[in-house]
Design a protein that fits this description.
about 160 residues; alpha+beta; 3-stranded antiparallel β-sheet; about 25% strand; globular
Length: about 160
Amino acid sequence: MSFYQFHSDLAETTLLKLTSAYSVFVNGGKLVDPILIDRIQDSEGKTVFNNDKRKCINCDEISYLSKDYPIIKDDYKKIFSPETSYQMTSILEGVVQRGTAKKLKDLNLNIAGKTGTTNKNTDTWFIGYTSNLLIGVTLVWIILLHWVDLKLAQKQLCLFLRSL
């Protein structure tokens, strides 16, 4: 039985869809399509692939030394207001500061997130974000008689976030 077959009848959604839904909070109320590869650069730093489809207005006229900022135009669908995004982020920061993800508090980062479980605690997930990164992680019960060591997984997640 494959991993996908094992979980296809257990899950109502996917980690990618769940992470995408939380992206609205970090993007000021706009729904952004998730991407797996942001850009590819060669050994000299030249971008050979860029997944960003937004348009930069007057970018070629603005020097990186000036105090002017470019105007970035996007076509993302607005789901709710930036104020609602701010309030939800504030609530989700409480999950890390005082709630079920408080072990991440030791990273000293402004992290907002949500933990959850599914199917009688056989699957555990965490969606977390800073102003620069959104990440979704799931710990699953792959072998029926063996639980993933949650303390070890939590430690690995902390080490990963510290490396960013």
